[in-house]
Amino acid sequence: DVVMTQSPLSLPVTLGQPASISCRSSQSLVYSDGNTRLFWFHERPGQSPRRLIYKVSDRDSGVPDRFSGSGSDTDFTLEISRVEAEDVGVYYCMQSTHWPHTFGQGTKLEIK
Amino acid sequence: EVQLVESGGGLVQPGGSLRLSCVASGFTFSSYWMSWLRRAPGKGLEWVATMNQDGSEKYYVDSVKGRFTMSRDNAKTSLYLQMNNLRGEDTAVYYCARDGGVNWGQGTLVAVSS
Fold first, then answer.
1. How far B43 CA sits from the closest chain A CA (Å)?
2. Which residues of B fall within a CB distance of 8 Å from A37?
């Protein structure tokens, strides 16, 4: 199975400051069609996960532009340009290039 | 508006069975891959199973192979997960999700305990 490794696992951030989460995969995530099936999700306490980013860097509808994804092959990053209070929760990367699909361990973002 | 509504969770003894359902609306159900995912208490998200549009392709995580069966009824815009021989480690909130996780249901809790 492809192992997805996130860092840091805990991320205390001051409101208005940037935040960055790294996600590394144990194998290349480039699919046979040339796309890279790497996604980012946000889970708030008591709520269902919400997808933020698909195919490494495409923002889902309604996702604020302070969220951005980047990376390639095995190394990916989610960045929040200015953290807001509603951004607290756990962030997960996920790959669907290989079966089974696998998630990172999750990064818990909290406000300092 | 896309809606996914799961049901069928509950408390079951080890070795028991449950059948989860997910009713979809707001999109052309028959055109999309669908998945089941779960989050166990205190743990992260885990993908459980995925099925293509007509049910001819199914994929399962190793830990549920041979015990869980995913199916769908496109006429009823519904997704199912038959779970047999349940174990304690299957205790989790189960979610159905549309292709690539673009939409998720609210989840249904499955608790396996004696």
1. 8
2. 100
